Amino acid sequence: xxxxxxxxxxxxxxxxxxxxxxxxxxxxxxxxxxxxxxxxxxxxxxxxxxxxxxxxxxxxxxxxxxxxxxxx
Length: 72
Known about the structure:
Layout: H1 32-38, H2 40-71
């Protein structure tokens, strides 16, 4: 004798209330000034990262030149 398996119902377009968030398809138009104001910290952080990478690169080049002279 086979046992009947109970399977969960699959969600279809017509099957009761959906779990979608309301207003999900709406897109808000944002101006460049608002974006610059909201994400100004990103540019500051990128500048800091660039300067740090530049300093590390200069340190590597300097170490590559100085190391053979000192320990050569």
